[in-house]
Write a structure and sequence with these properties.
Length: 435
């Protein structure tokens, strides 16, 4: 239909105004966009993996399906280095005009990003999403702050106990079934095989140490009325600290070598044949398979205090969140569902080994790849998460817990003094974060 000149002029003005609004993406004073465009370019930042091509293929398929369903919408994906993600994302929060509509982020960053005003509250959309009904409770907790939802879990990472089947067979021993047995087995192996760490442990391996604290009934912090208080110096937590640090010494993993080791170093020690055991993640499987111990190892859940029990594991992983400043909120939420939905998570597991956050998709993953069963069992036994406080980011980056472990294993402080110092630093971080 041809428009008359009298009608066409105002329409043209409206179109130009719409284009201007889209380009500038006006926001309210709290950083929230005032427009919700249903067409245009939706920008996404995802993390660059070491081997990124398989991830790109899965993402491309999800994007193509999304664009097919949403005519007039185009998706632009950028893969950002994990090492510089903090600077990039903080800059995006401070400059909404340059910000993407959707970001992948580490699940320990949720509370901090919410406090910074960067993530949109998508509680209503998440509550009405059919896929979300099967989300693992711990994964859901990783996108939850004060009862509100700020994203969708993308994958979960959990750790278990890798052990050398050939070494255990030669020594006539079985995989440990309790925490005490784990410690004694490690020392027994090192005594019989001085060339091996009984179990590789690291003073900087926070997420490998946390299960020892939780298994003994300890907590990192407690929450009341929206505020957190450190609990790392409770008697129960101290038992866990003592159990973990007892593995450092000439009878297992010498402090001089192991105090500075982190998670990657302990897994590398195991994969290269220098350790009989290590605490590693489902995400460590490929590295171990590529190492000297291929075909000579097995994995079981990390044992708890009571024989036959499983120590609570830290549930790591990544999430997908909609930026509060997005001028394409509806499209961004729909794209989030496409990227973090059941179909895509299943494909990411096949391509990358990322453990799905949906209980039914995870069960299917275990059926296809039996190696993930110990990790799924660990999740099922009750995984835990870090305090949902923006203060956790400072605690983590300031190396509060690694410092505590290193002070104990070096002999500079005893468990009580080191945990008291750590608790004080944690409380200062919680207070300064205002939560």
């Amino acid at each position: 239909m041809k428009l008359s000149a009298r009608i066409a002029a105002p329409v043209t003005a409206l179109v130009l105004a719409g284009l201007t609004a889209t380009a500038c993406a006006p926001q309210t004073s709290d950083g929230k966009a005032t427009t919700d465009e249903k067409t245009g370019t939706v920008r996404v930042w995802l993390f660059q993996e070491v081997a990124n091509a398989p991830k790109e293929q899965v993402v491309d398929a999800a994007v193509a399906a999304f664009e097919q369903r949403h005519k007039g919408a185009k998706v632009e994906v950028e893969y950002i280095p994990v090492d510089t993600r903090a600077q990039r994302i903080k800059a995006a929060f401070n400059d909404p005009k340059s910000a993407p509509d959707l970001i992948e982020y580490g699940n320990t960053d949720t509370a901090g990003y919410v406090k910074d005003g960067g993530l949109a509250d998508i509680s209503a959309e998440f509550g009405g999403w059919a896929d979300a009904e099967d989300t693992d409770a711990t994964a859901k907790a990783s996108v939850t702050v004060d009862g509100r939802i700020y994203g969708a879990p993308l994958f979960v990472g959990v750790r278990a106990l890798y052990y050398r089947t050939d070494v255990f067979k030669d020594l006539g021993i079985s995989a440990p079934t309790s925490q005490d047995e784990l410690v004694s087995t490690a020392k027994k192996i090192h005594k019989a095989r001085p060339d091996l760490y009984g179990i590789a442990v690291g003073g900087a391996y926070t997420y490998g140490a946390m299960p020892f604290i939780w298994a003994n009934g300890g907590e990192l912090a407690t929450e009341a009325g929206g505020s957190y208080k450190a609990a790392i110096n409770s008697e129960a937590a101290r038992k866990g600290i003592a159990a973990y640090t007892s593995l450092f010494g000439d009878d297992n993993c010498p402090a001089a070598k192991c105090a500075q080791m982190g998670g990657n170093a302990t897994v590398t020690a195991f994969a290269s044949g220098k350790a009989a055991m290590a605490i590693g993640g489902d995400f460590s499987h490929a590295a171990v398979e590529a190492g000297a111990v291929k075909g000579k190892y097995a994995v079981v859940p990390l044992p708890g205090v009571t024989a036959g029990s499983i120590a609570p594991a830290f549930a790591g992983g990544n999430n997908i969140g909609v930026m509060k400043s997005s001028s394409h909120r509806t499209l961004a939420v729909e794209l989030m569902k496409s990227l973090a939905g059941k179909e895509t998570q299943g494909r990411l597991f096949d391509a990358m080994g990322f453990l799905p956050t949906y209980t039914d998709v995870r069960a299917e993953a275990a059926r296809k790849q039996p190696f993930v069963k110990p990790f799924i069992d660990s999740l099922g036994a009750g995984a835990k998460f870090v305090p949902a406080s923006p203060g956790w980011g400072k605690i983590d980056s300031s190396l509060v817990l690694p410092t505590m472990f290193q002070e104990v294993v070096s002999g500079r402080k005893d468990v009580n003094a080191a945990s008291d110092d750590a608790a004080r630093k944690m409380d200062e971080a919680f207070a300064s974060a205002g939560r």
